[in-house]
Amino acid sequence: MPIFRYLKRKWLLYRSFPESWQGILDRSVPYYGQLPEGLKKTLRNHVVIFLDEKLFEGCNGLEMTEEKKVIISAYACILLLGEPAGYYPDLQSILVYPDDYLAPVREEGEGGIVSEGTQARKGESWDLGSIVLSWDDIRENIENQSSGQNLVFHEFAHQLDEYYGLTAGIGEYGEIYRDDEWTHILAAAYRTLQRKSRSRTQCVLDPYGATDPAELFSVATEAFFLKPRKLSGEFPKLYDVLKSFYNLDPGLFVPL
Predict the structure, then answer these.
(1) In-domain check, residue 60
(2) Could you tell me where the beta strands, DSSP code E, fall in the chain?
(3) What top-level branch of life does the organism fall under (predicted)?
(4) 233 within a domain of the structure (yes/no)
């Protein structure tokens, strides 16, 4: 880490946590209230650094308020409670739309025929440099935490996946191209979710995770933080490797 960045982070953490930010965490980030005191302090420190280093931009007329920034930062940094991972070092900008937005889609079909169009999306991790989010969906997820869905968790999990290459060893149908415990367990969970999705069997993991290994990791991350006990009961090996990766056990403080 460059010495300037190191010293600036030290200086940022030396200052008092803003009272207005504390109020936002208390009233608008229900997950914060579930954390043990030590993790609350860790999260506050992470939020301070994250907010200083990332660019937030409201799109399609959305006003990017302090409250929106703190809420998004808090949920993004919950994934870093066990290990900061450089605060998503390659991520520069967070684009926030009022609601679902239209993204360009280009697909190649049989015979090499290419079709272009648009698709409504809630969020997107374009690459390591930027993330796109829908504020309405973030707000809905917060109000209904028991749903097991959280758009910020989902898209920032994609950032971690890209940064570490977490699903790079798994093929579209669950083939394994890397011989390590992590890959074997994620691939097995992915194939299980595909089977459950085809048979419409109820599962703690969102069926959307059956579309791609990267989506499996993101929906598994959502379940790990929001429904840890259910995930541990249904996918114990997956829960264990996620617990090791995130260096955290949400089952100790989240009741679901």
Answers:
(1) no
(2) 55-58, 93-97, 101-108, 114-121, 123-127, 130-134
(3) Bacteria
(4) yes
Cβ(183)–Cβ(169) under 8 Å? yes
**Residue 157 included in any domain:** no
Integer angstrom CA distances of residue 77 from 6, 40, 153, 202, 239: 18, 11, 9, 30, 20
- CA distances from residue 141 to 24, 48, 199, 228 in whole angstroms, order as listed: 16, 23, 27, 17
CATH code of residue 226: 3.40.390.10
- Does the pLDDT of residue 165 top 70, yes or no? yes
Q: Tell me the C-alpha distance between 37 and 182, whole Å.
A: 31
Residues of the domain holding 180:
165-256
In a domain, 150, yes or no: no
| 3-class SS of residue 120 | strand
Residue 17 burial (CB count, 10 A): 14
Model pLDDT for residues 23-43, shown as the tens digit of each residue: 999 999 999 999 999 999 999
Please name every residue paired with 116 in a beta bridge, in sequence order, or none if there are none: 106
Q: How many domains does the chain have?
A: 1
Residues 221-246: tens digit of each pLDDT: 999 999 999 999 999 999 999 999 99
**110: pLDDT confidence band, cut at 50, 70 and 90?**
low
Pairing status of strand 114-121 against strand 123-127 = unpaired
